[in-house]
Structures are given as structure tokens and as C-alpha cells.
Amino acid sequence: MASAEQAEELLGAQLRDGVDPELMALPAPARGRRVATMAVMALAVVAAVALLTGLRGDLAYYFQDSVAVNLGEATAIDAAALGSNRYVSIHGTPMASRTIEYSRVFGGDFAVFPLAGQRRVFVQAAVGERALQTSRREFSGRLVTMGELGGRLGAVRRAYEGIGEPVTAQTYVLLADEPPGSYSWALALAGLCIVFALINLLLLLRWFRPIRVRRRAAG
Fold first, then answer.
1. DSSP per-residue string spanning the chain
2. Which of 61, 73, 111, 214 is the most exposed place for a label (fewest CB within 10 A)?
3. How far apart are CA 166 and CA 119, in angstroms?
4. HSE-up of 211 (CA within 13 Å, CB side)?
5. pLDDT given at position 219
6. Would you say the pTM of this structure is higher than 0.85?
7. With bands split at pLDDT 50, 70 and 90, how would you rate the model's confidence at 110?
8. 14 pLDDT tier (thresholds 50, 70, 90)
9. pLDDT at 135 exceeding the cut of 60
């Protein structure tokens, strides 16, 4: 017990009004640098939240039923049966004469083509052994609109406009061979965004909150 009292007396001797005078004597960080650091951390939080918002559709698709909804033949699809961000399967013959191929910087080569007899649904498939076999008539994957894909198919849309193909933001695209389970990356990326935003928020609160000095009453 005596040792604890001695330690408290020693600590009290080193502190003045509950604050270490040597710590308070240290020069404060430059205000400009402090503001810049706060701004960068705040922008990092905003960027993480914006990316998380952009992943909403991918996350919603990840939690879809793993059994594809069979829409039947492309030529007989009822427009009312079409819906965005669904896992579906469609039967139809690829039109090689209307195929547009493009490459992603980190994602490989893909082909986009309509199924014969209609122009409401196009298909995107990876260029490879399975993608453009003339015998392949069944395609399953994620059904979205051109508009929802944003700039990812911007060049493809312009190419179709150049050949007079009626492609709009409301035109559906079936992203072939992309079941809901293949979007686990979206869940991992969303978790990373949440962790990144929380860490920056906690550091902002811890490093830049004002220090309150409590003075003890005399006597």
C-alpha cells in the first residue's frame, strides 16, 4: 500500500495540474500539415464509402438464389419477365455477324453478341473454348442493363451504334458464366472498405480531438 502511495506522490510531483509539463512544452505540429492530414484522412473515408455504395448491386447479386431462373428461348421472352440483377438462363443462337470483342486491362478478352431473332437481350461471354462455340445455345449468368454497367461497356455501345444496332441504356446484357457465388470478391472488398473507413475515423478522433486540461481546485 505504501508503495502505491509513493508512486502516486511521485507522479503528482512530475505533473502540474494533471498535465506533464515536458509534454506540453513540445512544439505543436504545424497547423497546415495538421489540416492537410485531416483532409487526406477524411477523403479516404469518403472514397471508401463511395466505393462501398458502388458495390451495392454486386453485393445484392451475391446473395441471390444460386439456382438460375430459366427464361426460355430468347425469341419468346416476355418483356415483363426481364428484371435486372438476377441470375437467369437463356436459350438462343449467338449471332457471329453482330459480335463485338473487347479486352479488359486486367480481365481478359470478352465478346458481346445478340441472340438471333431479338434485340432485347445481348450476351457477354469470355473469349475461349466455351464462349463462342456455335453449338452453344444456353447461357446462364447475371442479367443487367447496359446503363447499370456504366462505362464498362461504353466502347461496345459505341461500336454497335456505328453499325446501326439499336443498343440503349435499357438493353439487357447477360454476363455469362457469372453465378452469384463468383461475386465473393465484392463481399471481401466491401469488408475492406468498412474496415478502412472505421480505422481512419478512429484515428481522426484519437489524433485530432482537442485536449481538455482539468485543473484541480486549490486547497
1. -HHHHHHHHHHHHH-BTTB-HHHHHSPPPPHHHHHHHHHHHHHHHHHHHHHHHHTHHHHHHHTS-SSPEEEEEGGG--GGG--SSEEEEEE--B-GGG-EEEEETTTEEEEEEEBTT-SSEEEEEESSTTTS-TT--EEEEEEEEHHHHGGGGHHHHHHHHHTT----TT-EEEEET--GGGGHHHHHHHHHHHHHHHHHHHHHHHHHSPPPPPPPPP-
2. 214
3. 8
4. 9
5. 47
6. no
7. very high
8. low
9. yes
Tens-place pLDDT, residues 66-83: 999 999 999 998 877 788
Q: Terminus-to-terminus CA distance in the chain, angstroms? A: 25
Phi-psi region of 143 (alpha: psi -120 to 50; beta: other; left: phi over 0): beta
Mean pLDDT score, 51-70: 94
Asked if 93 and 115 count as a contact pair (C-beta separation under 8 A), the reply is: yes
- Kindly give the pairing relationship between strand 108-114 and strand 121-126: antiparallel
Name the phi and psi angles at 8, rounded to 5.
-65, -40
Q: What is the dihedral of CA 22, 27, 28, 34, to 10 degrees?
A: -130
Determine the Cα–Cα distance for residues 143 and 182; give it in Å rounded to an integer: 14
Distance, CA of 138 to CA of 104 (rounded, Å)? 24
Of the candidates 105, 205, 200, which has an alpha carbon nearest to the alpha carbon of residue 155?
Answer: 105
As beta bridge partners, residue 89 has 70, 140
